[in-house]
Amino acid sequence: MKNKLICQIKEYKPFNEQEKVDKDIILSYLKDYDDIFYRTNLIAHMTASGWVLNKNKDKLLMAYHNLYDSWAWLGGHADGQQDLLEVAIKEVKEESGLEVVEALSEDIYSLEILSVDGHFKNGEYVPTHVHLNITYLLQADETETIVNKEDENSEVGWFELKKAVEVSNEKWFRENIYSKLNEKLKLLK
After folding, report:
1. Cα→Cα distances 145→125, 148, 151, Å
2. Buried b / exposed e across 124-139, counting CB within 10 Å, b at 16+?
3. Residue 42 phi/psi, 5° resolution?
4. How much is the pTM?
């Protein structure tokens, strides 16, 4: 599965300079670290996120993440799993309570390296590190009941595309990640 992911990343056409640079670094880490899919690698580890659209493709699902004190996309750690599309779907379901989440494509939608400041989780210190993140374009039914995952987020909701970017308190994500993801949606039409 790791080799399949490496092939997918190699074939991925970067959207901008950030993705071009991050693609090369992610490939390097995948080659050099056997534990890159585990949080035991305290420097960097693989994560997967979902940019979750409703069926009309005019709204996005976001969660208010307690750790970041901000509205954000849904996703999480690979924790040993090398099928990152499966990780993204599993994390979206866990964080939203949705039962049906589908991939609009099995292809990588975006990739990025994300810094995570040191913090305490379950009473233990987690040092500053980076997430080597792969994003997938997913879809769900906005009429399905959603619930927050209390240990991670305090709210989950659907937002119009532009509003989904605006509600984030994280400047880097607003300007460089979420805006990019929405910009890429225009290419699909």
Report:
1. 34, 10, 19
2. eeeeebbbbbbbbbbb
3. -80, -5
4. 0.95
30 has which bridge partners? Answer: none
How many residues are given for the chain? 189
CA distances from 142 to 55, 61, 94, 158 (A): 8, 8, 16, 7
> Which residues have CB under 8 Å from 180's CB, separation 6+?
15, 16, 18, 110
Cα angle 172, 19, 69; round to 5 = 25
pLDDT per residue as tens, the chain (189 positions): 899 999 999 999 999 999 999 999 999 999 999 999 999 999 999 999 999 999 999 999 999 998 788 999 999 999 999 999 999 999 999 999 999 999 999 999 999 999 999 988 889 999 999 999 999 999 999 999 999 888 888 899 999 999 999 999 999 999 999 999 999 999 886
Fold annotation for 2-187 = Nucleoside Triphosphate Pyrophosphohydrolase (3.90.79)
Report in angstroms the alpha-carbon separations of 143 from 32, 96, 119. Answer: 44, 13, 35
- E strands, 40-148, are 44-53, 59-65, 70-72, 74-77, 102-103, 110-116, 119-121, 124-126, 129-139
* Contact indicator for 26, 112 with CB cutoff of 8 Å: no
- Which pair of tokens denotes residue 14? 């970067």
